[in-house]
# Entry
Amino acid sequence: MDCSESLMLQATSRRALLLGGASFAAWAYLPKFARAADGRDPRFVTIILRGALDGLATVAPIGDPDYAGLHGAIALKADGPNAAVMLDPFFGLHPAMPEFSRMYRAKQAAVVHAVATSYRDRSHFDGQDVLESGFPGPGRVQSGWLNRALEALPKGERVTSALAVGPTTPLVLRGAAPTVGWAPTALPQAADDTAMRLLDLYQHRDPTLASALTQGLQLEKQAQGNEIKPQPGGGGVAAMRLVARGAAKLMAADDGPRIGALAFDGWDTHANEGGPVGRLAQLLGGLDGALAEFQSGLGARWRDTVIVVATEFGRTARINGTEGTDHGTGTIALLAGGAVNGGRMITDWPGLKPANLYQARDLAPTTDLRAVIKGVLHDQFGLGERVLADAVFPDSAPVKPMKGLVA
Amino acid sequence: MARDSQAALIALNRFGFGARGGAAGDFINAASDPRGFVLTELARPNGALLEVPGLLSTPELGKQVFDYQFEIQQARNAAKVAQQGASETPAQGSDAKQPQRRNLSLSTAAKEIAGKDPAMQPQPADNANAAMTPSATMQPPTMQTVAGPPKPPAQPLNIIQKTFRAEALARLQRGVVADCGFVERLVVFWSNHFCISANKGALARMWAGSFEREAIRPHVLGHFSDMLKTVEQHPAMLFFLDNQQSLGPESRAGINRNRGLNENLAREIMELHTLGVGGGYTQDDVTSLARVITGWTFAGRRGQLGAPGSFVFNANAHQPGPQQVLGKTYAQAGLAQGEAVLSDIARHPSTAKFIATKFARHFVADDPPPALVAKLQDTFTKTDGDLRALATALIQSNEAWQAPLTKMRSPYEFLLASGRLLARNPEDPGRYLNGLNLLGQPLWSPAGPNGFPDTAAAWAAPEGIKLRLDISAQLGSQLADRFDPRDLLELIAADAASVETRRSIERAESRQQALALLLMSPEFQRR
# Structure
């Protein structure tokens, strides 16, 4: 009776893995730049870490006299087994991120610390809304800052190849500018003729579904030939790498997408976060691997690439009663890519003295994440300050684009 | 025509799981009395309960997991001893492995020890290294030497997988045989509202079904305050949101063990279960509630606090003294303090508004008619959170029948509706579970404590539609021989079917193609 089971069984353990914690989507057009002069062909990727990354555990202020006491058993140390990799005399990088460390030394990566969006409460879902929508506060916004940035770019050719993993586009890339998505599947495909007949029916009866199906069909076709076969059993950590590998492969193509977004889930480390090894370390290893996949997959295009890694907010400076951290405020943003003016810690460090903590519990934010992203979008794509302050990040005129992030 | 076909479509699709195939006559019955067709299910005493032989209680299931884990721990210890005997250079390997111990799911631990666990569901943050090894898809590299044969035959399911599948099967079967399915839709709604995720670990996977049977179903037609209390005291929820680890900083256990609060459950109670974001609570309220519910835990394997796997109040872990939540001081001692807070929060005006809005959004429209939300909120308040009254008010309203069918069936609703129409009462849940994974709604395993999305846009994404088409095409190619798709269209929509849908089906090049088109038609996908 259930004869489809065996067919679907194969497909699903793979897909489930990808749906389990990582996704990618991209702009459907190649931006048209007047940059033939310097031969640059810029790429931009944003990676959203959902669940709130513990910035103090990832890039640890080991030189801050209060850090070790606050982060307690999970604090990173400058020496001993699994020591942090010191980025400068004050900050140490988590040992699970050797690739990022290498990029940093090669001046292709930078860290912005004590950063936050404009959101100051502690709900993941509102915090993600603010992070991804680019609006100053939460609300039922249906478009993201990256999508609105795309609208301001000169639209070139439609991309012939793009991918997204997961059945939905992340909010950061949702909006009026068309995006594309794709996910690998081992299910047998419906016949073209059936698909065309259904499309005809939708066009008469349900334009929304017609549009969705059109895109779904197109992407499946474009993605064929891409041998992105996830291995079962890896969970979210492996998915990060696999999604990044696929994304990099398509973004490296001359006719591939230039601008994309990924979302990785699973950073909400309330209990047993782990220090140099453990749960967070595994996740960071996945992220590190994803960055490495971008570098190797983009090949020569790496030199024109900027990747911005951001999260909705940070976590408490002091560990909680279960060797984890609760929802906080200030955290980090990571920049990686050949175009990054890297090898730098970018921070106006607020200190971790009780009086300096935000609401006496969180790393106080001293840098607005929007300044970072604005700076990158300005340098990378020439977006003007006005557009950035009105359309991309509405009502953000006082937040000036950070200068000099792109080499 | 006296019968109201459009209302029948709404009764079956918006409020139920769709028309059944065969001679059930669901559409005709729904058309003759649409409201009555839906409401009849509410009148059945205990109609929401799921009592199936072989499904065990949470403590019984907990004991099985504890025993299983204990067995694995024993095997792990034995393996470690053997390894130490065999290897002179254990330093690096053991160093890297040891700190992961606390977070390993049982399935991973089982994989590591015996390689006896085929991939079940995605596990967050489990076992990154193993996944990158093509030849050892199911087993970490370290196990290859122990496991021996390069391609071991399919392993028997472990107790956790068996239980999960049995629970899933019972739920699916109930959904397939229900007349309208309104009560089952209510169960799914509330289960998603108070979701846990089976991916949290072995206990969560083991308890996902019993949680729904014990904490959700008995109260789906009862009172919200009772459901809230049962949910927050259920071991599955306490485990999912870490409350069993939260200790009052000044409690005896907190002082002795130098550990303290974990505010995860307290926050989600306020943000997701009751008041909603912007519902008038502060960080201080969250922290206070976290203190109030310290000691809410479940008994472990050795049963020092009670029957293993049962809810217990551990006075040793409870933060002593009065607490202030939402401006009110709660001076009660022990368990009563938290129960008093929950009882008040359940009746808070923000809760009524949050629940009414979410309920209307689920059934009627992403942006539900304000008049309907107001009506539901009023009912919730006046009846002290009577959920049968809430459901009745929804069905009795005009708004719920007048709003156009703009929502999409979720993957669960889509697969179940297909199963009902094609008369496939499942004997094995595998096909459904796999389909749910594929379409992004793995059973009892949402990505976060806010549950699966509930908007049309979430389920009408390009990739999702294409996958539904592939699944429909497969069902068509395998099952169409038994049906005349034109008859099936009569069963699901009759006069409510559009001319275009009817024509597409009639003109299809094959029955197979016609069935795929029927399953993908707006009449089958929209609700």
